[in-house]
Specification:
Elements: H1 9-15, H2 21-28, E1 39-43, H3 49-58, E2 61-66, H4 71-80, E3 87-91, E4 104-110, H5 113-116, H6 122-127, E5 131-144, H7 162-168, H8 172-180, E6 185-192, H9 196-204, H10 209-221, E7 226-235
Parallel strand pairs: 1-2, 1-4, 2-3, 4-5
Antiparallel strand pairs: 5-7, 6-7
């Protein structure tokens, strides 16, 4: 069987589910001390592109968890890359993770954490217990440059609901304050990512209705409100 690689643009675009997770992960992982032999949770891995990237680049063992994509479907993709012994696909809810405490050297989540982690309970109830002392938590996700405070800007109202924004999209300051409440982590950085335009551009090239709909959203935003945010913390 001919093995795939991540230079296959058509394959990547066929499997993206939002702004390019590969591009976001490239930036997110720049300063992460990932080393061969580490055990890493890829939380909300989607179609597994992020797990494939991490396994190939760093030689780590990945537990690729997603709720929306089946483990069998991801396993088939991992086999195409010859990574079936390095990436373990798991179908699970982020609030019911089947792992031992202090099991992981790191948790990485790209374009997923906002769906389940934008509350005071999630981080310490479900995630920090799974990470070893000194381990890393690294998140990349869509955000906004200013809190909307219950009123979505007129330009974005055709595309975003207030409940969606209130429950998922927030600023760097909002996320920093949320994570700093945890007694179990040291927050190293919370910042806007440099790759916004590049990550969204790749998604908008995809041949699916979701990407085409997002093109109108990006045009309406015109750089005013939306951003991408990274959070990196160390387990105490």
């Amino acid at each position: 069987m001919i093995r795939r690689d991540l230079d296959d643009v058509d394959f990547i675009r066929a499997n993206l589910m939002g702004p390019s997770s590969i591009i976001m992960l490239e930036e997110l992982s720049e300063n992460l001390p990932l080393q061969k032999g580490m055990r890493v949770l890829d939380l909300g891995c989607g179609t597994g592109l992020t797990s494939i990237y991490l396994a190939q680049k760093f030689g780590i063992t990945l537990f690729a968890v997603d709720l929306w994509i089946s483990a069998t479907e991801n396993y088939r993709r991992f086999r195409e890359f010859g990574l079936e012994s390095q990436i373990i696909p798991i179908h699970a809810d982020a609030c019911h993770l089947p792992f031992a405490e202090q099991y992981f050297d790191a948790v990485i989540s790209v374009d997923a954490y906002q769906y389940f982690g934008a509350n005071e309970q999630y981080l310490d109830d479900h995630l920090t217990p799974l990470v070893k002392e000194g381990g890393k938590l690294a998140i990349a996700m869509p955000g906004i440059k200013m809190e909307f405070d219950g009123v979505i800007p007129v330009e974005l109202q055709p595309f975003l609901s207030l409940s969606e924004v209130d429950n998922q999209w927030h600023t760097c300051d909002w996320w920093r304050k949320l994570w700093q409440q945890s007694p179990n982590i040291y927050v190293e950085s919370v910042r806007e990512m440099r790759c916004f335009s590049k990550a969204w551009y790749e998604w908008l090239q995809c041949n699916n209705d979701y990407a085409r709909a997002n093109n109108a959203l990006l045009n309406a935003d015109d750089g005013k409100y939306m951003n991408l945010i990274s959070l990196i913390a160390t387990k105490k």
